[in-house]
Write a structure and sequence with these properties.
Layout (H helix, E strand, L loop, with lengths): L9 H17 L7 E5 L1 H25 L4 E5 L2 E9 L2 E2 L4 E2 L1 H4 E2 L6 E20 L26 E9 L6 E9 L2 H4 L1 E4 L8 E10 L4 E4 L24 E3 H7 L4 H7 L1 E12 L10 E6 L12 E10 L2 E25 L1 H14 L2 H13 L5 H6 L13 H9 L23 H5 L11 E5 L17 H4 L4 H6 L1
Parallel strand pairs: 1-18, 14-17
Antiparallel strand pairs: 2-17, 3-11, 4-5, 6-7, 7-9, 7-10, 7-17, 8-9, 11-12, 11-13, 14-15, 16-17
């Protein structure tokens, strides 16, 4: 007697069945089925979601964002500036050549409003500034000869000498003497500074669209000599008063002139090139760029020196300048109709409308699926019949619906024997498709009717039981 093969463990058998089921399901094909559900509340939700999505794309995407246009950001730009005006301090009159740095007229320039002058500095030895770390001393032993402090004013000689004023002593250094805080004089230049005029000449170019424009009106007369900027009447006269710029930035001119600061003059070119070039106009705005509320880095200042010779020795005047720095910043974008972004956004809008169907399907199957009525109607399973190699016309006819479906189910219970009354011809027929509903069904939420037949009971649809097309089968 042959030995029986051992049965695999239950877990292994379950894993094999799961693997076979997954492999079989991998080759399944899913197709949508149309079901009309007569439910007013669900219909309102469906149409409301569609309306919101439609309004979003029509109003925001296409009207506000103009997503039907091809866009270019960051135009090629050129900026030329020129400052005019004179002012005076306690000791002299200042003109443009002295208070504008640098004088080239670029997109970044500074207007000096206050200075601290250290005159007549020469190379020699003098006391170090008390502001330098470890500069104070009591004797020569506190000063190291040859020591160089990166934040100091020179090389220490090793001597401890009295300071410029008071009883303090500091280490002696070799460098430009006297040091800055020892003999500096402050002068304020901001008395007439609010009336300085600044010409900001700007031209832009969008290479993708081959579009160029400038911010100065094309006139041959002396228009620029008699105008100042006004957003309504003189938009193309880019001559601004310094006081106007500081006011538009929301700053106090006197405070800004004493401590210094950085003001950004922002020119924005947003151009819709589907319209005429006259609708592409510059928009100006001004704001402070440096962090004025941070005491450690508040304000703006820089140093420079003027050199000359006295009796053959080199002498210089050191100037620590406080001022208002102007940064001209140009940005913008241009757009013009293009077919490609239009098609992409229209396709996105049409696809997004399907979100309403997804939401309503979730509501239908999650909250309204009483007794699994909707899920049974929505999901059907069709088993593709298997035939012998010579029966492909019948198979194709069954799949296309051109032949009447048989009454037998798509699968039979292997443990249930066939009925004896079946003929051999019927037994020879392969398994047939599962019964399916019509391509479109209408479902309404109606009260449950009685179990027995009555006037309210609907008759079975003959379309579910017979779908015949002898002509089509004959063509096959």
């Amino acid at each position: 007697m042959a030995a029986t093969e051992p049965k695999p463990p239950a877990g292994v058998a379950a894993a094999r069945r799961l693997a076979r089921g997954c492999w079989s399901a991998f080759w399944d094909y899913e197709t949508p089925k149309v079901i009309v559900v007569k439910n007013r509340r669900l219909g309102v939700v469906y149409r409301a979601v569609q309306l919101l999505i439609l309004l979003y794309f029509v109003w925001y995407v296409f009207i506000v964002q103009k997503s039907y246009q091809d866009r270019e950001t960051g135009p090629e730009s050129s900026v030329i500036t020129k400052v005019k005006g004179i002012t005076s301090s306690e000791h002299k009159v200042w003109d443009v050549e002295e208070y504008v740095k640098p004088p080239e007229g670029g997109s970044v320039f500074s207007i000096i409003t206050r200075i601290e002058v250290t005159p007549s500095q020469t190379l020699g030895t003098c006391p170090e500034s008390v502001r330098v770390t470890n500069a104070t001393c009591n004797s020569d032993d506190d000063c190291v000869a040859g020591q160089l402090d990166m934040l100091g004013n020179g090389v220490r000689t090793g001597r401890c000498i009295p300071y410029y004023r008071g009883d303090a002593k500091t280490c002696e250094v070799s460098g430009w003497c006297p040091v800055e805080d020892g003999a500096s004089v402050s002068q304020f230049l901001g008395k007439m500074a609010p009336n300085f005029t600044i010409l900001i000449k700007n031209s832009i170019h969008y290479p993708k669209f081959k579009f160029s424009k400038g911010n100065i009106e094309n006139r041959k007369d002396s228009y620029l000599k008699h105008c100042t900027f006004d957003e309504v009447s003189h938009l193309y006269c880019p001559i601004f008063r310094l006081g106007f710029i500081v006011e538009q930035a929301g700053e106090n001119f006197t405070e800004l002139a004493h401590k210094g600061g950085v003001i950004g003059a922002i020119i924005n070119w947003d151009c819709d090139l589907d319209l005429s070039a006259s609708n592409c106009n510059p928009k100006y705005s001004f704001r402070r760029l440096d962090p004025k509320h941070v005491p450690a880095s508040s304000g703006y200042n820089f140093r420079f020196a003027k050199y000359y010779k006295i009796n053959g020795s080199t002498t210089r005047t050191l100037i620590k300048a406080y001022g208002i720095r102007i940064d001209v910043i140009v940005h913008g974008q241009a757009g013009k109709f293009s077919l490609i972004p239009t098609i992409i956004n229209v396709a996105t809008a049409l696809t997004s409308i399907g979100v309403g169907s997804f939401l309503c399907d979730w509501i239908l199957l999650t909250f309204m699926n009483k007794n699994k009525v909707y899920s049974h109607k929505k999901f059907d399973k069709v088993c593709t019949p298997r035939h012998s190699p010579g029966s492909w016309p019948v198979t194709l006819a069954l799949v296309l619906g051109q032949a009447p479906p048989p009454t037998c189910p798509c699968s039979t219970d292997p443990g249930r024997p066939q009925e004896e009354g079946q003929s051999q011809a019927q037994a020879a027929l392969p398994p047939q498709p599962c019964p399916t509903s019509a391509p479109s069904e209408q479902m309404a939420d109606i009260p449950n009717q009685g179990a027995g037949p009555g006037p309210g009971a609907s008759k079975p649809s003959q379309q579910d039981s017979t779908l015949t097309d002898p002509r089509g089968l004959a063509q096959l």
